[in-house]
Amino acid sequence: MRIGIACTLKPDGPLPTGAPDDLHEEFDSPVTVKAIGDVFRALGHTVVELGDGRPFLEAVLKNPPDLVFNFAEGAGVSRSRESRVPAVCEMLGIPYTGSDPLALAVALDKDMTRRVAESLGVTVPKGITLAPVPGEYDGDFAEFPPILEEAGLSLPVIAKPTCEGSSKGIRNRCLIKTAAEFGPTVVSLWKDYQQPVLVEEFIAGDEVTIGLVGSDPPQSIGIMHVIPKTANADFVYSLEVKRNWHDAVDYVAPAKLPPDVTRAIEADAMAVYAGLGCRDVARLDFRVRAGVPYFLEVNPLPGLNPESSDLCYLAYRMGLTYPELIGMILDAAVTRYGLR
Is 102 inside a domain boundary? Predict the structure, then answer.
């Protein structure tokens, strides 16, 4: 089979002036593309790199592959940017791995995902989404603290851009402990990421992530507990932590959780996966407080870098090799399309 790899690579060169240093955080490196391609070549497939954007369009129009292995994030701040590759594939009748355009668009928007999860009976933190004001904010921030009270939120809260992945915008400073920090933190996120900001109650508890692979039904490959090396009730799995994970956290899988909590996480993850219509693969994040899992977000385009991806860390600790993980994702799509 001729498999095309759709991906968004980190660009060379310096960041634009004034851009946050995580502007390209969710984009991939050649390491990931080579690792995935090596898996497919070892299985006897022909591999072509399609890229993203215009190069992707030109490549599939000129010589469409038998299947697109999609992990293209898309550039810009559009909340539907992850939907572009699958939308083109559907328009051209090309089979592809992963979720469809609607699932990807909804999942990228944390506010929309929360609404879907709540409608399914899944517990989410209390929260409110704040849309950016037009132009530069010129207030004195006094209007912000009453917003928390009106929303029934008490400090501490955590603020994050609504439509980003790979922990973009989620820094240690996003854990807001005082009223004076609230307004400046939100306005700073508006400025840097040009999108609404989700403000949620901070769930002090265990950070866990679950990987699901397959469709109708998917299977859990396990739950991983992210444990800070220094005990900290205010632990946030922030960008700073992810960039320095060797020194900051331990990854434990399978997570040592009570059986009823494990079952609850699996049930909630399956409900969100099915409710959004996810396919082939996704990773879902939760915080557990007093035995109750709180759903945070779902990533149906999880990172697949063999050296830095949470899904890969989870798979390795559950006894799976990288080729086995990638092979499971590919097999799910191949089976779904009846390409065997």
Answer: no
Is there a contact between 159 and 189 (Cβ–Cβ < 8 Å)?
yes
Whole-prediction pTM value?
A: 0.95
Give the dihedral sign, CA 82/217/338/305. positive
| Segment 175-184, tens digit of pLDDT | 999 999 999 9
DSSP letter for each residue of 290-319: TTEEEEEEEESS----TTT-HHHHHHHHTT
What number of other Cβ atoms are within 10 A of residue 250's Cβ? 11
Rounded to a whole number of angstroms, the CA Rg of the chain reads 20
pLDDT digits (tens, 9 = 90+) for 283-326: 999 999 999 999 999 999 999 999 999 999 999 999 999 999 99
Are 115 and 257 part of one and the same domain?
yes
Q: Are 7 and 49 in contact (CB under 8 A)?
A: yes
Write down the mean pLDDT value for the chain: 96
- Look at residues 310, 340, 79, 334 and name the one whose alpha carbon lies nearest to residue 208: 310
In a domain, residue 257? The reply is: yes
Q: Which residue, of 173, 201, 229, is where some domain finishes?
A: 201
- The token pair at 61 is 């129009």
Q: How many domains does the chain have?
A: 3
Q: Which of 39-48, 69-78, 292-301, 327-336 has the lowest mean pLDDT?
A: 69-78
In a domain, 256, yes or no: yes
Cα 263 to chain centroid, rounded: 22
Give the range of the structural domain holding residue 224, as residue numbers without chain letter. 107-122+204-337
Please name which of 70, 66, 94 lies closest in space to residue 82, comparing C-alpha atoms.
70
Shared domain check, 215 and 192:
no
CATH code of 31's domain:
3.40.50.20
Residue 56: strand, helix, or coil: helix
- Centroid of chain to Cα 57: 24
Tokens of 277: 């219509």
- The answer as to whether 90 is a domain residue is yes
- Residue 209 in contact with residue 314, Cβ under 8 Å? yes
Pick from 83, 85, 95: nearest CA to 56? 85
**Mean pLDDT, residues 146-154:** 95
Question: What is the reported pLDDT for 140?
Answer: 85
